[in-house]
Sequence to fold (288 residues):
Amino acid sequence: MSSISSKTKVYSVIGHPVSQSFSPKIHNYLFEKYDIDAVYVSYDVNPDRVKEGIEGIRHLGIMGTNVTIPHKIEVMKYLDEIDKKAKLFGAVNTIKNVDGKLYGYNTDGTGLTKSIRDSSGEDIKGKKVLIIGAGGACRSIAIQLAIEEAASIEIVNRSIEKAQIIADTINSHFETKAIASSKTITQDDIDNVDILINTTPIGMGTDESPIDTSLVPPKNMIVADAVYKPHETALIKWGLKYNLKIAYGIQMLINQGIHSFSIWTGINPTLEDTENILKIFLEQQKNA
Ligand code: NAP
Fold:
């Protein structure tokens, strides 16, 4: 931001902890790029103070807020209106403050589907998807894939119950056919898959892969990983070895932020913005 004055608007992210968040870099880049007199800051809100945190946002006139772990579900109680999709996701990651009225949205799923479209040039419609993991990230991604008319979604998780709940939600609301399992993924399982997505933390800070890397992927498969540290996870390295199209975890993070920015400002940032923000991330990683 060039200069802060009494007119400068404030946007934020709330979470616990929140000091590691990359969101301030995303939004302060966008405010500067689009010449918006605003600043984006982070607030560490204790889990037993979420209500007070949300009232602070309302009364201090903080214009928009991202919500990160562990508050995405709890904040829903204190908002005035929640978007239909966020209700289905069961979580809010974006709040817009309009004259003291707080509206809740969720951009996590679109963050992933936009990354797939940007990286591969392909739409989700008609695709057969395999998702590993069945936590919060899987829920928003799987429902967004169903909204965008994926043909089928198989959710594989070590404990089947969570995967089954997500599959049941999809089967009762959408045409997409969803199934849940807790099996070990074999060659047969991936032979017909168009998009493989990891939503477990496996690979975060390690060289572990959520699937056996001796499997050979179909040649047009797209690989997406929600994990973004390291930038090239073991799963992504496996995909690169076979020249597959890749949607990186950091693209998902940047794109969910870009969608929040659009909700707040009505501006749709460009692919060049995504690339510039990615450069900032990679530079930060190099210096970490
Ligand atoms: P979550 O709600 O805790 O769910 C994690 C899922 O992974 C659960 O289904 C869990 O299985 C499974 N899992 C965890 N450790 C495992 C292991 N060692 N082996 C097999 N399965 C395991 O977490 P989340 O919010 O979905 O986040 C998942 C990952 O995505 C995290 O690394 C997070 O940082 C990342 N993420 C990235 C973005 C982005 O923008 N790039 C956005 C959201 C999340 P059980 O059900 O059996 O416990």
